[in-house]
Structure formats: structure tokens, C-alpha cells
């Protein structure tokens, strides 16, 4: 595809307000003519995510006027039903731990399959042809619905089911957290990495009263540990 055809594309970014999806949003804004965002409220314990995502969108509009021109509507989808049918530490008041199958109990079974399906429905209605998500196979907790093959299968299933070509882009699939910081820096310089530190949220416990060099969080949950290690590896380069 020529770069001008690529630029004319309209995209929908699965945007949770975390480091990964904010980097994906910047990636999409740098690439596509028109970009919309979607966020899912599924009764997650760290509801602070739903608040900081609006703050992050606002900061992006203010700090990056060239991206603000491309940044369209934000869609908030109520998926409370997901909280009702899953039993995980993200939606229940239980400690984060690892299950016998090696997956952390933060895993909401099939979450990304549902997210992509709802996103595709919105994309169809809004005339958006690319879905962008922060799924990553290399350094997260082994969630099977984040794997590259799962994403490719979803791309085929959604394109067939909607009878319309839909592309699923996952710019973070093969990079680690240090590379994600580096990608953000290459897209928006230190202004973007600082915005990510200050305004995005990753911590499973929703802690926002302690700010570290890498951002807010408890500093100890698996999400904080990953974000902290990635930041420190990137900063040491
Ligand atoms: Zn944490």
C-alpha cells in the first residue's frame, strides 16, 4: 500500500488510558488521517482508568495540535456484563496471584476477543477500516487473547463477518516495555513520554497518590513491576 493510501485510512484505537494504548494512539495519529478511540468499562477494580483516559485525550489534544486535527470522537462502551460473567482479580476483590495454568488471575477470559468485536461494530458504523490495539506477545503475562495468531484470526473473522475488510494493527506485538517507551519517544519526543508518565495509568490497584519516575502506581503489582522495569531499562540506554 502506498503511503498516501495508508494516510487516508481511518482508524479506531482501543484506548484504555494506559501506557500501551496511549503509545498506540500516538502511533495511529502519526499515521492515519482520522482516528477515533474506544474505551470499555467492564467493572474493572481500577476504575481510575476510565477517568485518566479522558484526561490523557485532553492532554494529547492540547500538547499535539497536529494530532488534535486528526483525533475524532471517543466512544465509551459499557461492558458491565463482562464483570458479571468473569471471576478475576480485575473485577473482584481478591489478591492478584498466578493460577495453575501459569496465567495470572488478572486474566479476563476472552476479553480482547470481545473488545475487538465491539470495536469492529463501532468501526463499521463509523466508516473506520483499521483497528489498533496494544496487544503484545513478548512481555506480558502470556494472555492467549493477546497473541499474534489470535489477532490475525480475529482480523479474518471480523472481515468475513462484516463483509468488509478490516485490518487489525498491533504495533507493540513484538516489542518489550523498554521499546514501548522508545517508540513513544520517537513519535512525540520527551513531551509524549512525560505525558505518559504523568497522565496514563497502568497499576492494577488503581493507586494514583504516589508518583515515581515511571508514573503513578503501587510499584508492586505485576503491571507496575513491568512498567517500572521497562522504564528503567529504557532510561539506562
Ligand atoms: Zn500497581
3D architecture notes:
The structure is a single chain. With 237 residues, the protein is an alpha/beta fold. The protein has nine helices and seven strands. Strands 3-2-1-4-5 form a five-stranded parallel β-sheet, with helices on both faces. The longest helix is centred in the last third of the chain and has 23 residues, at 177-199. It is globular. The protein binds zinc ion. Zinc ion binds at residues 203-205, 207, 217-218, 220-221, 223-224.
Question: What is this structure's SSE topology?
Answer:
Elements: H1 3-7, E1 10-14, H2 19-31, E2 34-41, H3 48-63, H4 65-68, E3 71-78, H5 80-85, H6 111-126, E4 130-132, H7 148-162, E5 167-169, H8 177-199, E6 211-212, E7 215-216, H9 222-235
Parallel strand pairs: 1-2, 1-4, 2-3, 4-5
Antiparallel strand pairs: 6-7
Helix pairs in contact: 2-8, 3-8, 6-7, 8-9
Descriptive labels:
single chain; 237 residues; alpha/beta; five-stranded parallel β-sheet; two-stranded antiparallel sheet; 9 helices; 47% helix; binds zinc ion
What's the order of the H and E elements? HEHEHHEHHEHEHEEH
Strand line-up of the largest beta sheet:
3-2-1-4-5
Bound small molecules, by name, code or SMILES, are: zinc ion
Total helical elements = 9
Helix content: 40-55%
Report the portion of residues in β strands: 5-15%
Q: Find the count of extended strands (DSSP E, 2+ residues).
A: 7
The chain-level mean pLDDT equals 88
Gyration radius from CA atoms, angstroms:
17 Å
Write down the overall geometry.
Answer: globular
Largest sheet: 5 strands, parallel
Structural class: alpha/beta
CA-CA gap between termini: 34 Å
Low-confidence regions = none
Amino acid at each position: 500500500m502506498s503511503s498516501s493510501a495508508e494516510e487516508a485510512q481511518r482508524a479506531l484505537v482501543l484506548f484504555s488510558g494506559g501506557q500501551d494504548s496511549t503509545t498506540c494512539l500516538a502511533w495511529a495519529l502519526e499515521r492515519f488521517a482520522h482516528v477515533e478511540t474506544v474505551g470499555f468499562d467492564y467493572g474493572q477494580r481500577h476504575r481510575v482508568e476510565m477517568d485518566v483516559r479522558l484526561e490523557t485525550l485532553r492532554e494529547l489534544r492540547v500538547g499535539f495540535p497536529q494530532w488534535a486535527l486528526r483525533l475524532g470522537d471517543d466512544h465509551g462502551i459499557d461492558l458491565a456484563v463482562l464483570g458479571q460473567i468473569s471471576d478475576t482479580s480485575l473485577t473482584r476483590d481478591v489478591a492478584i496471584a498466578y493460577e495453575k495454568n501459569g496465567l495470572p488471575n488478572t486474566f479476563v477470559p476472552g476479553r480482547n476477543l470481545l473488545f475487538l468485536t465491539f470495536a469492529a461494530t463501532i468501526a463499521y458504523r463509523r466508516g473506520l477500516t483499521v483497528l489498533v490495539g496494544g496487544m503484545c506477545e513478548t512481555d506480558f503475562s502470556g494472555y492467549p487473547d493477546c497473541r499474534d495468531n489470535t489477532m490475525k484470526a480475529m482480523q479474518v473473522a471480523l472481515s468475513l463477518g462484516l463483509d468488509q475488510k478490516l485490518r487489525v494493527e498491533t504495533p507493540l506485538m513484538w516489542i518489550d516495555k523498554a521499546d514501548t517507551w522508545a517508540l513513544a519517544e520517537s513519535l512525540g519526543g520527551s513531551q509524549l513520554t512525560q505525558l505518559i508518565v504523568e497522565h496514563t495509568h497502568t497499576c492494577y490497584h488503581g493507586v494514583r497518590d504516589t508518583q515515581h519516575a515511571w508514573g503513578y502506581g503501587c510499584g508492586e503489582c505485576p503491571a507496575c513491576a513491568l512498567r517500572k522495569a521497562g522504564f528503567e531499562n529504557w532510561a539506562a540506554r
